Predict the 3D structure of the following.
Amino acid sequence: MPECQAYYMLEYMQDIGLSIGENALTHGEIESWQRNIGVRLSPWECRTIKRLSSAYLSEFYKASDPKSETVWEDAPYYMSAKYRNAMRAKNAIRKIAEDK
């Protein structure tokens, strides 16, 4: 991961909330958080937090698909979708054989 010069914005976003249910953060939610906490964000910081919330939701929905590939292909225990599907089929066949 590259160095992050604005790590505090990720902390702010987590404090506000990553999303509002199935929707990205709104400017109103960010503004309310600023008023309640006493923090004043610049316009670019507000836009960035809003974009991060949208990006988070987009990746969340992509990752929810069991057939989706992980972005961490170099992870030590990564299993490709083909391998996972083959293991599911193998386990299903075993289960059928055991039931008979």
Summary: The radius of gyration is 20 Å.
